[in-house]
Specification:
The complex is a heterodimer. Chain A is built from 5 helices and 12 strands. Chain A is an alpha+beta fold. In chain A, strand 7 and strand 8 form a beta hairpin. Classes of the chains: A alpha+beta, B mainly alpha. The structure holds protoporphyrin IX containing FE and FE2/S2 (inorganic) cluster.
C-alpha cells in the first residue's frame, strides 16, 4: 500500500487502466461465458427451440377405445449437438436415422364434466367417455365436419406429469392416471384429482385429424400456471 | 542375524527420512498434517471430517477409474455402464464404491456439519472455514445430482428430470436454470454432455482447491475443541486464583479477610474478559 501511495495513480492512468481492463476483461470472459450459456441465449433470448415445430404423426384415432385411454409414442425431431443439421447432413450414413425426442401421448374420449371440481380439494365429477359414433362406420376419409366433431371429443394429453414431469400412466383398477413419482392422480380428461400436481395434465394445443384418419400434433402445450401461480415447464 | 538386518534397515530408512527432510521438509510437514491434538471427550466425533475426506478421495479415485470405460453419449452411456457392471473386472466393485461412497459422503457431511454446529466450532476465528464448508456442501450436492443422470437409466433419468423441474420453480431465473441444465429446451444429447462436463471436470476442479483451503484453515486454527479450549481456559483461571490466594496470604491479615466467594467471582470474570 505504502509503495502505491508513493506513486499515485493519475486520473488518466486510472481511466487507461479502466478502459483497458474492461476491454481485456470482455475479450477474456465473453467467449467462454457465451459458449457455456449458448442454450440460454438460443432459447430464452432468440426464442429458438431444439424441438422441431412441424406436424408429427401420432396414429389412427379409430384405435382409441371407448372407455379407456390409449397411448402412442411420437418422435419429434430435435436439433441438439450431434443432432443438428450441420452435423447430420454432410455425414448421412442412414438417411432415416434422425435424432428424436420420444414423447408418449395419451388419447382418450372426453367424459362430460357433470360438476366442476376445485383444484386442490376435489376433482371433477364426470360421466362416461363419449366416443364419436362416426368411428363405428369408418376409420378414415372423414369430412370436414366429422373431423371437427372428433377433435372436439378427443383428449390429447402429454404424459409428462404437471408436478415435476414424471411419466404418468393409466391405472385400470382406479380408472385414473397415476404418476409413479409422488402419486399425482388425474381423471380420464387429464383433470386434477389428487396428489401434488398444481393443475391438470398438459394438453397438446395443436392437434388435428386428417383425411387418412390419423392424428397429427405439434410440440406445443397449454402451459397456464396452476395453483402455485408458477409458469410450468414441460420437459 | 535378524537383529542385524533390523538395525540395518532401520538405519537405512532413518537415513532416507533424514535425507528427504533435509531437502523438502516433508517429514515435519507430514507431522504437522497428521498429528493434531483433539479433546479427549467426544474425540470420535472429530473423525467425521476425516470420514468426509476419505469418501471424497474414494469418489475421485473410483470416478477416474470409471472414466476408462464410461461413454457420455445418449446412445452408449447405458451400455457402457452395463459393460462396467458385467464385463470389466471388478467393475461392480469400482462402480459400487462410487455409488455407495457418494451416499455415505452425504451422510458424513451432514453429521460433520452437525458436530461443528452443536459444538460451536464455527465461531471466531473459524467462521470462514464454515463458509468454505458450506460451499463444499453445495458443490458435492451438485456432484451427486449430475452424477445420477450419467447412468442414463430410468432411475437416473427421471430423478434428473424431477430435479431440473424443481429448479424451474426458482424465482425469476427458473427458465434459465432449466435451459442451462438441459443445454436447450429438451432432454437430449446436450443434456448428458453438460452433466458429464459438470460432474467430471467443473465441480471436481472447483472442489479440490476448496478442500485444500478447508484443511489449511483447519490447521491454522487447530480443531475446535470446546472442551479443549475450555480446559485450557480453566487451567489458566485456576493458576491465577492460586497466585491471588498466595498474594492474599502474604498481604492481608487473616481477621479482615473478604468472603472468598466474591474474589473467586471476580477472577472468573476477569478470566473471561481476557479471552
Ligand atoms: C464428491 C464427489 C462425487 C460424488 C458425490 C459423485 C456422485 C456420483 C453418483 C451419485 C453417480 C451415479 C452412480 C450410479 O448411480 O451408479 C456418479 C457417477 C459417475 N461419476 Fe461421480 N461423484 C463424485 C466425483 C466424481 C469424480 C471426481 C469423477 C471423475 C473424475 C466422477 C466420475 C463419474 C462417472 C464417470 C460416473 C458414471 C458411471 C456410473 O454411473 O456409475 N465422479 N457419481
Ligand atoms: S412428478 Fe408426478 S406427482 Fe410428482
Amino acid at each position: 500500500m505504502a509503495e502505491l501511495q508513493k506513486d499515485p495513480i493519475t486520473r488518466s492512468d486510472f481511466l487507461g487502466f479502466g478502459v483497458m481492463g474492461a476491454i481485456v476483461g470482455a475479450i477474456l470472459t465473453i467467449p467462454p461465458v457465451a459458449f457455456v450459456l449458448s442454450p440460454i441465449i438460443k432459447t430464452d433470448v432468440l426464442g429458438e427451440s431444439d424441438v422441431g415445430t412441424g406436424w408429427v404423426e401420432v396414429g389412427p384415432v379409430s384405435k382409441v377405445p371407448a372407455e379407456e385411454p390409449t397411448h402412442f409414442v411420437v418422435s419429434f425431431p430435435i436439433q441438439q449437438v450431434y443432432g443438428t443439421k450441420a452435423v447430420e447432413n454432410p455425414n448421412v450414413q442412414d438417411p432415416n436415422e434422425k435424432f428424436t425426442l420420444r414423447n408418449a401421448i395419451w388419447l382418450s374420449w372426453k367424459a362430460p364434466i357433470k360438476e366442476q371440481g376445485r383444484q386442490g380439494s376435489n376433482g371433477d365429477i364426470i360421466g362416461k367417455p363419449e366416443r364419436p359414433k362416426i368411428l363405428d362406420q369408418k376409420s378414415s376419409g372423414f369430412t370436414e365436419s366429422e373431423r371437427k366433431e372428433i377433435m372436439s371429443k378427443l383428449n390429447v394429453l402429454s404424459n409428462s406429469c404437471a408436478h415435476l414431469g414424471c411419466p404418468v400412466r393409466w391405472n385400470e383398477e382406479k380408472q385414473l392416471y397415476l404418476c409413479p413419482c409422488h402419486g399425482g392422480l388425474y381423471d380420464i380428461n387429464g383433470g386434477w384429482v389428487g396428489g401434488p400436481p398444481p393443475r391438470g395434465m398438459y394438453r397438446y394445443t395443436d392437434a388435428e385429424v386428417r383425411e387418412d384418419g390419423k392424428l397429427y400434433v405439434k410440440h406445443k402445450f397449454n402451459i397456464e400456471p396452476g395453483l402455485n401461480k408458477q409458469h410450468p415447464y414441460v420437459v | 542375524m535378524i537383529g542385524r538386518i533390523r538395525t540395518q534397515t532401520s538405519e537405512a530408512s532413518q537415513f532416507l527420512v533424514d535425507w528427504m527432510e533435509h531437502r523438502t521438509g516433508i517429514v515435519t510437514m507430514l507431522e504437522h498434517f497428521l498429528y493434531e491434538p483433539v479433546p479427549k471427550r467426544g474425540a470420535w466425533l472429530y473423525t467425521l471430517g476425516s470420514a468426509v475426506l476419505f469418501t471424497i478421495t474414494l469418489q475421485f479415485l473410483t470416478g477416474i477409474l470409471l472414466l476408462f470405460y464410461y461413454v457420455p453419449t445418449t446412445d452408449h452411456a447405458w451400455n457402457s455402464v452395463s459393460y462396467i457392471m458385467n464385463d470389466a473386472y471388478f467393475g461392480q466393485l469400482i462402480r459400487g464404491i462410487h455409488y455407495w461412497s457418494a451416499n455415505f459422503l452425504m451422510a458424513f457431511i451432514g453429521l460433520h456439519m452437525g458436530q461443528v454446529f452443536f459444538s460451536g466450532g464455527y465461531k471466531a476465528p473459524r467462521e470462514l472455514n464454515w463458509v468454505v464448508g458450506v460451499i463444499l456442501l453445495l458443490l458435492v450436492i451438485g456432484l451427486a445430482f449430475t452424477g445420477y443422470l450419467l447412468r442414463w437409466d430410468q432411475d437416473g433419468f427421471w430423478a434428473s428430470v424431477v430435479g431440473m423441474k424443481i429448479g424451474s420453480y426458482s424465482p425469476f431465473v427458473g427458465g434459465y436454470v432449466v435451459h442451462f441444465l438441459l443445454g436447450g429446451d429438451a432432454v437430449g444429447p446436450a443434456t448428458l454432455s453438460r452433466f458429464f462436463a459438470i460432474h467430471v471436470w467443473l465441480l471436481p476442479a472447483a472442489i479440490a482447491p476448496l478442500i485444500g483451503a478447508h484443511l489449511y484453515l483447519l490447521r491454522r486454527h487447530g480443531v475446535f475443541g470446546s472442551e479443549f479450549e475450555y480446559t485450557d481456559r480453566l487451567a489458566k483461571l485456576h493458576e491465577r486464583q492460586r497466585m491471588e490466594e498466595y498474594a492474599r496470604y502474604e498481604t492481608v491479615e487473616e481477621d479482615e479477610g473478604e468472603p472468598y466467594v466474591g474474589r473467586r467471582d471476580r477472577a472468573d470474570r476477569e478470566g473471561y474478559e481476557e479471552e
